[in-house]
Write a structure and sequence with these properties.
By secondary structure, this protein is an alpha/beta fold. The chain has 3 domains: 60 residues, Beta Barrel (OB fold (Dihydrolipoamide Acetyltransferase, E2P)); 149 residues, Rossmann fold, CATH 3.40.50; 60 residues, Ribonucleotide Reductase Protein R1, domain 1, CATH 1.10.40.50. It contains 9 helices and 13 strands. The strands form 3 sheets. It has a 6-stranded mixed sheet, sandwiched between helices. A 5-stranded mixed beta barrel has the order 1-2-3-5-4. The chain has a two-stranded antiparallel sheet with strand order 6-7. A hairpin with a 4-residue loop joins strand 2 and strand 3. Helix 2 crosses helix 9. The longest helix has 20 residues. It is globular, with a radius of gyration of 21 Å. It starts with a strand and ends with a helix.
Length: 292
């Protein structure tokens, strides 16, 4: 039995990197019976069936430190939520859903604003919003190389998943920090201002300066899974920081009077866009709960 890391999964084959080479593996039938699907990032035990062709079977998955289902990856040290300052314009609601998912799964999260060369003023405004919310933020440009060295420092010796919409420049950023990746990059559709999909599957790449990074397909929408409206305040760090002074126990921080969170919002201590996302998600999750 050999141990390795699943770095890619395509068409029912899992590519497992060991100390010696990369093996092309199928998963044993027990995974289907146990309703367990191997993920990129999994530490796997494999049984080699052909040493010359480097083929085998995945026979066991070691316990995961954490996991995400979109992008579908496991054993993450950092979720780097990446979006463009413009072209395409970011969906703050989608970004905030990703931060909530990271918090719910106990995954450290940071923000990367790419294409800051296109509009430095708005890039700095997004940076202000997410720093005020308590996140580490980098404003970078894959095109000019601005702050790429700081990005490399953030990624060093971590297993990082990049997540975000199509067209925000994730592949361009990876090319900028490690030219050996040679990843395909695409532009943005002039007609609908959406990114062109260039990454078709999730893949784990080793970084020459230490660590690993997942390149994941982009997406335009995202739904929260297994999160209730009662949990939501604790998953917004800036709201959790102020909710202790509310008059009512179990305050939703939306309609109740004498709410310390709304007071902090009025004082500019909580970003308006983040509070708007919180209210929309709270309403969305409460409806799901009531329907169930």
């Amino acid at each position: 039995m050999i141990k390795g890391t699943i770095i890619k999964g395509i068409g029912g084959f899992y590519y497992v990197k060991t100390d010696d080479c990369i093996y092309s593996c199928r998963a044993r039938g027990k995974f289907r019976k146990e309703s367990l699907t191997p993920m990129v990032g999994d530490i796997a035990e494999i049984e080699v069936t052909d040493t010359e062709k480097h083929e085998g079977y995945v026979v066991n998955i070691l316990p995961r430190k954490n996991e995400l289902f979109r992008p579908q990856v496991s054993n993450i040290d950092l979720l780097l939520i990446t979006f463009a300052a413009q072209s395409p314009a970011p969906s703050l609601a989608l970004i905030d859903k990703l931060t909530v998912t990271a918090a719910a799964r106990g995954i450290p999260c940071a923000i990367c604003v790419n294409k800051c060369d296109l509009n430095s003023e708005i890039a700095q405004e997004y940076s202000r919003i997410y720093r005020l919310a308590g996140f580490e933020v980098l404003t970078v440009s894959a095109e000019t190389g601005e702050n790429v060295e700081q990005l490399k420092a953030l990624l060093t010796n971590k297993t990082t998943a990049l997540a975000g919409s199509s067209g925000v420049g994730k592949s361009s950023l990876l090319n900028a920090i490690g030219e050996s990746f040679n990843l395909r990059t695409g532009g943005v559709s002039d007609k609908i201002q959406r990114g062109k999909h260039t990454t078709r599957h999730t893949e784990l790449f080793p970084l020459s300066f230490g660590g690993f990074v997942f390149d994941t397909p982009g997406f335009g929408s995202y739904e929260l899974e297994n999160i209730t409206y009662k949990e939501l305040p604790s998953l917004f760090p800036e709201i959790a920081a102020f909710e202790g002074g509310c008059r009512f126990t179990g305050c939703s921080h939306i309609k109740e009077p004498d709410c310390s969170v709304k007071a902090a919002l009025l004082e500019g201590k909580i970003p308006q866009s983040r509070y708007t996302s919180y209210c929309e998600l709270y309403d969305e999750l409460k409806k799901i709960k009531e329907w169930q």
